Amino acid sequence: MGKRLAEAELHLSAVCKRFARVVPNHEPYPTAFEKKKDPFRALVRSVIYQQLSGKAAGTIHGRMIALFPDKDHPDPEDLLEATPELLRTAGLSRQKIAAIKDVSQKRIDGIIPEARKLLRMSDEEIIERLTAAKGVGRWTVEMYLMFTLGRPDVLPIDDLGVRKGAEKLYRRKFTPKELGTYGARWAPYRSAAAWHLWRVVDTQTPEQSKI
User: Fold this and answer.
1) Residues 87-102 pLDDT 10s
2) Which of 77, 92, 171, 184 has a CA that sits 20 to 30 A from residue 152's CA?
3) Of these residues, 78, 109, 123, 159, which one is catalytic?
4) Is 158 a catalytic residue?
C-alpha cells in the first residue's frame, strides 16, 4: 500500500476498500495535540471567528486582546466587567459581545470547566457542557474535541466538507443522519475518517489555531 500507515489508517483501510485506495495518498490524521489548551480561550476565539474570514476575525481577535494590555488573554471576569462600548471598539458585534460574556459567565459558574477536567469527561459530556454557552454549536465543540483534545472517535456529521467527501468516495448522497449511521463502521477512528473525507474533496481542514 505504499508508505507505512498509522493505526487509524490501517483500521479504515481494513474496513473499507475505498478508504484503502485513498488514505495512502493523504497525510495521516495527527496524533499529537495541545490537550491543555484552555476551552474558555478556545470558545472566545471561536465565537469571534464565526461568519468572518480568517483575516478579519484575526484582526478583531487581536484588537480584543489588546484591550487588556497587562495580560496575554483577558480572564472571564475582565470580559464580564468590560462595557459593550469598549468591546465594540475592537470590532465586535452586539451579538458576539453577548456570546463572549455568556461564555465568560459559564466559565465562572463552572459549566465550562478547565482543560484538565475535560480530559476526564466523555465526548458527549463535553459537547453538552460547552454548547450551553450562547454562540457555541456542536460543530465548534467537535472541532475542539478533534484538534485540541485529540479525541479519536468524533464524526462531525453536520460538516459539509465531511459529507461531500463521503458522497464523492461512495458515489451516493448522505443526510447527516445517514452519514452518522453509515460511519459507525469506522469506529473507533471516526476522527481520522473525517480527516480523510475532508481530503477526498480537497477541503481545508479546520486549523487548530482557530478552534
Assistant:
1) 999 999 999 999 999 9
2) 171
3) 159
4) no
